[in-house]
Amino acid sequence: MFSIYRRAKEEANYTATIFLGMLTDRGGVATAKALINASKPSDGYAALYERQRLDLTVEALVVSEPEWQTLFLPQEVDRARRRLRQYGWPA
Description:
Order of helices and strands: HHHHHHH
Number of helices: 7
Number of domains: 1
Strand content: under 5%
Largest sheet: none
Distance between the termini: 19 Å
Helix content: 55-70%
Shape: globular
């Protein structure tokens, strides 16, 4: 999770301050669950979408990494996949 924060900053010129705070306060899994289960995408998700870097979102990490998927309910993985597809990412 901290890796996608650093990569977003370095590769997409996006400093995800709120995301970093969430990671520090809640930890990675709780942060990911909160973002995935939110009724709408976060501002950070929108910012990465605008930069064409959905690969740096929590949703993409959960969908693309099998070891992360085991930490989430199947419905959460599906929700992450649907959100990515809604924004044109081939999940």
